[in-house]
Structures are given as structure tokens and as C-alpha cells.
Sequence to fold (112 residues):
Amino acid sequence: ETLLFPGHEYTVMLLQQAVVREPGNKEARDKLRWARQQRAERRPTVPAKMSEELVYNGWAREATKRGDFGSFCSLCGVEDVRPTQASGGRRLGGGGSALKADVGEREMKKEN
Fold:
């Protein structure tokens, strides 16, 4: 079983986006509830099993169908920003994901 370990804790944010993108995806809603509970308990949500990721993550399915899993992060709304001197040469994520995550939060509240 392949494990994905992105090295960051964006699970809740990305699952909120997934629920907006695929409102009928029960697995995405269930995984979002689980991820919120994990974070409330200060526990990690990663790594994730690739087989599970393909069920609740439409971006991963799309990238896999195209045979381009390397574009996975750009499909899910997290842009890679080139390393800069100010960031100490690190790559930083960004790209408006916070707004999308806020929409996902509101959608989840409507369900409950």
C-alpha cells in the first residue's frame, strides 16, 4: 500500500475544497469529519493511503487518469511558489486556498 506523506497539514483545508467540488462524495465528507477530529486532538492526519486518497480526492483521481501525478498539488489549489531569498530557499504554498476552504466550511455547516 502506497502512503502519501506531503510533509504538511493541509488535510482539512483540502478536504473542505473536495466537499465543495464534489458535494455528493460521502467519503470526502467522512474523511473531513475524521480529519477535524484528529486536529482537535492535536493528532496528525498524514500519511494517507493512496487507495483511500483516490476515493475521496477528485484531484488525485484526475492527475492519475492523466498519468501526471506530479501535478497533483497544482490541481488541488496549492501552488508551488519558487524559492526566494526571503524564504531561505524554501518552497512556499499559496494561491487562494484559504477562500476556497472557507466556502467548504460553510457547506459542511449546512449539512449538520
Confidence is low (pLDDT under 50) at residues 77-107.
